[in-house]
Amino acid sequence: xxxxxxxxxxxxxxxxxxxxxxxxxxxxxxxxxxxxxxxxxxxxxxxxxxxxxxxxxxxxxxxxxxxxxxxxxxxxxxxxxxxxxxxxxxxxxxxxxxxxxxxxxxxxxxxxxxxxxxxxxxxxxxxxxxxxxxxxxxxxxxxxxxxxxxxxxxxxxxxxxxxxxxxxxxxxxxxxxxxxxxxxxxxxxxxxxxxxxxxxxxxxxxxxxxxxxxxxxxxxxxxxxxxxxxxxxxxxxxxxxxxxxxxxxxxxxxxxxxxxxxxxxxxxxxxxxxxxxxxxxxxxxxxxxxxxxxxxxxxxxxxxxxxxx
Length: 309
Prior knowledge:
Strand content: under 5%
Oligomer: single chain
Structural class: mainly alpha
Mean pLDDT: 82
Strand order of the largest sheet: 2-1-3
Shape: globular
Distance between the termini: 69 Å
Low-confidence stretches: 1-6
Number of helices: 10
Protein backbone atom coordinates (compact mmCIF):
# COMPACT_ATOMS: atom_id res chain seq x y z
CA UNK A 1 0.00 0.00 0.00
CA UNK A 2 1.24 3.44 -0.89
CA UNK A 3 1.69 6.15 1.71
CA UNK A 4 -0.88 8.42 0.05
CA UNK A 5 -3.75 5.88 0.36
CA UNK A 6 -6.30 6.72 3.06
CA UNK A 7 -8.88 4.72 5.00
CA UNK A 8 -12.36 5.33 3.56
CA UNK A 9 -14.78 7.14 5.88
CA UNK A 10 -17.91 7.14 3.70
CA UNK A 11 -19.53 4.66 1.34
CA UNK A 12 -22.00 5.30 -1.48
CA UNK A 13 -24.96 2.89 -1.66
CA UNK A 14 -25.95 2.56 -5.32
CA UNK A 15 -29.29 0.87 -4.65
CA UNK A 16 -31.92 0.65 -7.38
CA UNK A 17 -30.77 2.92 -10.18
CA UNK A 18 -34.13 3.65 -11.82
CA UNK A 19 -36.11 6.77 -12.76
CA UNK A 20 -37.78 8.91 -10.09
CA UNK A 21 -41.32 7.62 -10.72
CA UNK A 22 -40.25 4.01 -10.23
CA UNK A 23 -38.23 5.00 -7.15
CA UNK A 24 -41.37 6.46 -5.56
CA UNK A 25 -43.29 3.28 -6.42
CA UNK A 26 -40.56 1.11 -4.87
CA UNK A 27 -40.51 3.35 -1.79
CA UNK A 28 -44.24 2.89 -1.31
CA UNK A 29 -44.06 -0.86 -1.91
CA UNK A 30 -41.10 -1.46 0.42
CA UNK A 31 -42.59 0.86 3.06
CA UNK A 32 -45.81 -1.20 2.95
CA UNK A 33 -43.88 -4.46 3.31
CA UNK A 34 -41.82 -3.04 6.18
CA UNK A 35 -44.94 -1.78 7.96
CA UNK A 36 -46.61 -5.18 7.57
CA UNK A 37 -43.46 -6.84 8.91
CA UNK A 38 -43.44 -4.71 12.07
CA UNK A 39 -47.20 -4.92 12.50
CA UNK A 40 -47.50 -8.67 11.95
CA UNK A 41 -44.56 -9.62 14.16
CA UNK A 42 -45.56 -7.02 16.77
CA UNK A 43 -49.07 -8.49 16.98
CA UNK A 44 -47.60 -11.96 17.45
CA UNK A 45 -45.33 -10.77 20.26
CA UNK A 46 -48.18 -8.93 21.95
CA UNK A 47 -50.57 -11.89 21.78
CA UNK A 48 -47.97 -14.34 23.09
CA UNK A 49 -47.14 -12.07 26.03
CA UNK A 50 -50.80 -11.26 26.87
CA UNK A 51 -52.43 -14.69 26.50
CA UNK A 52 -51.30 -17.35 28.94
CA UNK A 53 -52.64 -20.10 26.65
CA UNK A 54 -49.84 -19.27 24.23
CA UNK A 55 -47.12 -19.73 26.85
CA UNK A 56 -45.92 -22.96 25.27
CA UNK A 57 -42.59 -23.96 23.70
CA UNK A 58 -43.90 -23.52 20.14
CA UNK A 59 -44.99 -19.93 20.74
CA UNK A 60 -41.88 -19.25 22.80
CA UNK A 61 -39.79 -19.95 19.68
CA UNK A 62 -42.25 -18.01 17.51
CA UNK A 63 -41.72 -14.98 19.74
CA UNK A 64 -37.96 -15.26 19.15
CA UNK A 65 -38.56 -15.54 15.40
CA UNK A 66 -40.74 -12.42 15.52
CA UNK A 67 -38.03 -10.47 17.37
CA UNK A 68 -35.40 -11.61 14.86
CA UNK A 69 -37.59 -10.71 11.87
CA UNK A 70 -38.29 -7.19 13.16
CA UNK A 71 -34.61 -6.65 13.98
CA UNK A 72 -33.48 -8.16 10.68
CA UNK A 73 -35.72 -5.92 8.60
CA UNK A 74 -35.03 -2.81 10.72
CA UNK A 75 -31.29 -3.23 10.22
CA UNK A 76 -31.46 -2.65 6.44
CA UNK A 77 -34.86 -1.47 5.24
CA UNK A 78 -34.94 2.06 6.79
CA UNK A 79 -31.68 2.98 5.05
CA UNK A 80 -32.95 1.40 1.85
CA UNK A 81 -36.10 3.53 2.04
CA UNK A 82 -34.10 6.68 2.76
CA UNK A 83 -31.90 6.07 -0.28
CA UNK A 84 -34.96 5.84 -2.54
CA UNK A 85 -35.99 9.43 -1.71
CA UNK A 86 -32.59 11.07 -1.03
CA UNK A 87 -30.13 12.27 -3.64
CA UNK A 88 -27.18 11.70 -1.29
CA UNK A 89 -26.98 7.94 -0.84
CA UNK A 90 -24.06 7.59 1.50
CA UNK A 91 -23.36 5.91 4.83
CA UNK A 92 -20.37 6.29 7.14
CA UNK A 93 -18.01 3.35 7.13
CA UNK A 94 -18.40 2.51 10.85
CA UNK A 95 -22.23 2.25 10.71
CA UNK A 96 -21.87 0.22 7.51
CA UNK A 97 -19.64 -2.30 9.29
CA UNK A 98 -22.06 -2.43 12.24
CA UNK A 99 -24.94 -3.01 9.82
CA UNK A 100 -23.00 -5.89 8.29
CA UNK A 101 -22.35 -7.41 11.72
CA UNK A 102 -26.02 -7.24 12.79
CA UNK A 103 -27.17 -8.48 9.39
CA UNK A 104 -25.03 -11.62 9.78
CA UNK A 105 -26.00 -12.18 13.41
CA UNK A 106 -29.76 -11.97 12.79
CA UNK A 107 -29.51 -14.14 9.67
CA UNK A 108 -27.70 -16.85 11.65
CA UNK A 109 -30.24 -16.67 14.47
CA UNK A 110 -33.11 -17.10 12.02
CA UNK A 111 -31.47 -20.19 10.52
CA UNK A 112 -31.05 -21.80 13.95
CA UNK A 113 -34.49 -20.79 15.24
CA UNK A 114 -36.12 -22.33 12.15
CA UNK A 115 -34.27 -25.57 12.90
CA UNK A 116 -35.39 -25.51 16.54
CA UNK A 117 -39.00 -24.84 15.48
CA UNK A 118 -38.95 -27.77 13.06
CA UNK A 119 -37.58 -30.00 15.84
CA UNK A 120 -40.34 -28.78 18.16
CA UNK A 121 -42.99 -29.72 15.59
CA UNK A 122 -41.32 -33.08 15.02
CA UNK A 123 -41.48 -33.90 18.75
CA UNK A 124 -45.08 -32.63 19.05
CA UNK A 125 -46.34 -34.76 16.13
CA UNK A 126 -44.12 -37.84 16.29
CA UNK A 127 -43.61 -38.11 20.07
CA UNK A 128 -46.64 -36.40 21.64
CA UNK A 129 -46.55 -38.47 24.86
CA UNK A 130 -42.96 -37.39 25.61
CA UNK A 131 -43.34 -33.80 24.41
CA UNK A 132 -43.42 -32.13 27.83
CA UNK A 133 -40.31 -34.04 28.91
CA UNK A 134 -38.27 -33.52 25.73
CA UNK A 135 -39.29 -29.88 25.24
CA UNK A 136 -39.09 -28.73 28.85
CA UNK A 137 -38.74 -25.03 29.56
CA UNK A 138 -35.12 -25.56 30.55
CA UNK A 139 -34.36 -27.17 27.17
CA UNK A 140 -36.23 -24.39 25.35
CA UNK A 141 -34.23 -21.70 27.14
CA UNK A 142 -30.96 -23.50 26.37
CA UNK A 143 -31.83 -23.90 22.67
CA UNK A 144 -32.90 -20.28 22.26
CA UNK A 145 -29.98 -18.87 24.26
CA UNK A 146 -27.46 -21.01 22.41
CA UNK A 147 -28.86 -19.82 19.06
CA UNK A 148 -28.44 -16.16 20.01
CA UNK A 149 -24.99 -16.49 21.60
CA UNK A 150 -23.52 -18.71 18.87
CA UNK A 151 -24.88 -16.46 16.09
CA UNK A 152 -23.38 -13.29 17.54
CA UNK A 153 -20.04 -15.02 18.17
CA UNK A 154 -19.91 -16.26 14.57
CA UNK A 155 -20.79 -12.79 13.29
CA UNK A 156 -18.00 -11.43 15.50
CA UNK A 157 -15.53 -13.77 13.78
CA UNK A 158 -16.60 -12.33 10.42
CA UNK A 159 -16.22 -8.81 11.82
CA UNK A 160 -12.68 -9.45 13.08
CA UNK A 161 -11.65 -10.90 9.72
CA UNK A 162 -13.13 -7.90 7.91
CA UNK A 163 -11.47 -5.29 10.13
CA UNK A 164 -8.03 -6.78 9.51
CA UNK A 165 -8.34 -5.74 5.85
CA UNK A 166 -7.29 -2.31 4.52
CA UNK A 167 -10.21 -0.35 3.05
CA UNK A 168 -8.88 2.28 0.69
CA UNK A 169 -11.46 2.13 -2.08
CA UNK A 170 -13.55 1.83 -4.14
CA UNK A 171 -16.25 3.71 -2.27
CA UNK A 172 -19.40 2.18 -3.77
CA UNK A 173 -21.63 -0.69 -2.59
CA UNK A 174 -24.16 -2.26 -4.91
CA UNK A 175 -27.17 -2.39 -2.58
CA UNK A 176 -26.68 -2.29 1.20
CA UNK A 177 -23.99 -3.23 3.69
CA UNK A 178 -23.77 -7.00 3.64
CA UNK A 179 -20.58 -9.01 3.84
CA UNK A 180 -19.97 -9.77 0.16
CA UNK A 181 -20.50 -6.13 -0.82
CA UNK A 182 -18.23 -4.86 1.98
CA UNK A 183 -15.44 -7.26 0.98
CA UNK A 184 -15.37 -5.67 -2.48
CA UNK A 185 -14.22 -2.43 -0.80
CA UNK A 186 -11.09 -4.08 0.60
CA UNK A 187 -7.76 -3.25 -1.00
CA UNK A 188 -6.28 -6.67 -0.24
CA UNK A 189 -6.57 -10.41 -0.84
CA UNK A 190 -9.91 -11.59 0.59
CA UNK A 191 -9.54 -15.31 -0.11
CA UNK A 192 -9.38 -16.17 3.62
CA UNK A 193 -12.63 -14.27 4.19
CA UNK A 194 -14.26 -16.03 1.24
CA UNK A 195 -13.17 -19.44 2.54
CA UNK A 196 -14.54 -18.70 6.01
CA UNK A 197 -17.83 -17.50 4.53
CA UNK A 198 -18.18 -20.66 2.44
CA UNK A 199 -17.31 -22.96 5.37
CA UNK A 200 -19.76 -21.11 7.63
CA UNK A 201 -22.48 -21.38 4.96
CA UNK A 202 -22.03 -25.14 4.86
CA UNK A 203 -22.44 -25.23 8.63
CA UNK A 204 -25.12 -22.56 9.12
CA UNK A 205 -27.15 -23.01 5.88
CA UNK A 206 -26.77 -26.53 4.47
CA UNK A 207 -26.59 -28.20 7.90
CA UNK A 208 -29.75 -26.55 9.32
CA UNK A 209 -31.59 -27.05 6.01
CA UNK A 210 -30.86 -30.78 6.11
CA UNK A 211 -32.07 -30.98 9.72
CA UNK A 212 -35.27 -29.15 8.80
CA UNK A 213 -35.90 -31.50 5.87
CA UNK A 214 -35.27 -34.56 8.06
CA UNK A 215 -37.71 -33.27 10.68
CA UNK A 216 -40.42 -32.58 8.12
CA UNK A 217 -39.91 -35.93 6.41
CA UNK A 218 -40.64 -37.66 9.73
CA UNK A 219 -43.61 -35.34 10.22
CA UNK A 220 -44.86 -36.25 6.74
CA UNK A 221 -44.77 -39.98 7.49
CA UNK A 222 -46.61 -39.33 10.75
CA UNK A 223 -49.27 -37.31 8.89
CA UNK A 224 -49.81 -40.14 6.40
CA UNK A 225 -50.80 -42.38 9.32
CA UNK A 226 -53.58 -39.99 10.38
CA UNK A 227 -56.95 -41.67 9.82
CA UNK A 228 -58.99 -38.50 9.37
CA UNK A 229 -58.91 -37.06 5.85
CA UNK A 230 -59.64 -33.57 7.19
CA UNK A 231 -56.80 -33.92 9.71
CA UNK A 232 -54.37 -34.95 6.96
CA UNK A 233 -55.45 -32.05 4.78
CA UNK A 234 -54.90 -29.47 7.55
CA UNK A 235 -51.54 -30.98 8.51
CA UNK A 236 -50.36 -31.04 4.88
CA UNK A 237 -51.48 -27.44 4.40
CA UNK A 238 -49.57 -26.28 7.49
CA UNK A 239 -46.38 -28.21 6.69
CA UNK A 240 -46.33 -27.21 3.03
CA UNK A 241 -46.65 -23.50 3.89
CA UNK A 242 -43.87 -23.83 6.48
CA UNK A 243 -41.62 -25.57 3.96
CA UNK A 244 -42.29 -22.83 1.38
CA UNK A 245 -41.04 -20.16 3.80
CA UNK A 246 -38.04 -22.28 4.82
CA UNK A 247 -37.21 -23.00 1.17
CA UNK A 248 -37.49 -19.32 0.24
CA UNK A 249 -35.16 -18.23 3.04
CA UNK A 250 -32.54 -20.96 2.76
CA UNK A 251 -32.73 -21.21 -1.04
CA UNK A 252 -32.13 -17.51 -1.68
CA UNK A 253 -29.32 -17.40 0.89
CA UNK A 254 -27.61 -20.50 -0.56
CA UNK A 255 -27.79 -19.10 -4.11
CA UNK A 256 -26.46 -15.75 -2.87
CA UNK A 257 -23.52 -17.00 -0.82
CA UNK A 258 -22.62 -20.45 -2.19
CA UNK A 259 -23.26 -20.26 -5.94
CA UNK A 260 -20.41 -19.11 -8.22
CA UNK A 261 -20.32 -15.34 -8.69
CA UNK A 262 -21.03 -15.66 -12.40
CA UNK A 263 -24.39 -17.27 -11.61
CA UNK A 264 -25.92 -14.12 -10.09
CA UNK A 265 -24.94 -10.69 -11.44
CA UNK A 266 -25.23 -7.61 -9.27
CA UNK A 267 -28.81 -6.73 -10.26
CA UNK A 268 -29.90 -10.27 -9.42
CA UNK A 269 -28.15 -9.98 -6.04
CA UNK A 270 -30.40 -7.04 -5.18
CA UNK A 271 -33.51 -9.11 -5.89
CA UNK A 272 -32.19 -12.09 -3.92
CA UNK A 273 -31.31 -9.90 -0.94
CA UNK A 274 -34.89 -8.59 -0.84
CA UNK A 275 -36.23 -12.11 -0.31
CA UNK A 276 -34.43 -12.75 2.96
CA UNK A 277 -34.27 -9.17 4.24
CA UNK A 278 -37.82 -7.97 3.46
CA UNK A 279 -40.20 -10.60 2.07
CA UNK A 280 -39.40 -13.43 4.49
CA UNK A 281 -39.79 -11.32 7.69
CA UNK A 282 -43.17 -10.20 6.34
CA UNK A 283 -44.33 -13.72 5.43
CA UNK A 284 -43.25 -15.49 8.63
CA UNK A 285 -46.01 -14.14 10.93
CA UNK A 286 -48.64 -14.88 8.25
CA UNK A 287 -47.47 -18.45 7.67
CA UNK A 288 -46.43 -19.51 11.17
CA UNK A 289 -48.86 -17.63 13.39
CA UNK A 290 -51.76 -15.59 12.00
CA UNK A 291 -53.19 -18.62 10.14
CA UNK A 292 -53.10 -20.63 13.37
CA UNK A 293 -56.44 -21.25 15.13
CA UNK A 294 -54.91 -20.71 18.58
CA UNK A 295 -53.49 -17.33 17.58
CA UNK A 296 -56.81 -16.30 16.02
CA UNK A 297 -58.56 -17.29 19.26
CA UNK A 298 -56.06 -15.29 21.31
CA UNK A 299 -56.60 -12.27 19.06
CA UNK A 300 -60.38 -12.50 19.52
CA UNK A 301 -60.02 -12.75 23.30
CA UNK A 302 -57.69 -9.73 23.45
CA UNK A 303 -60.01 -7.65 21.24
CA UNK A 304 -63.01 -8.72 23.35
CA UNK A 305 -61.25 -7.59 26.53
CA UNK A 306 -60.34 -4.23 24.99
CA UNK A 307 -63.91 -3.61 23.86
CA UNK A 308 -65.27 -4.28 27.37
CA UNK A 309 -62.69 -2.30 29.32
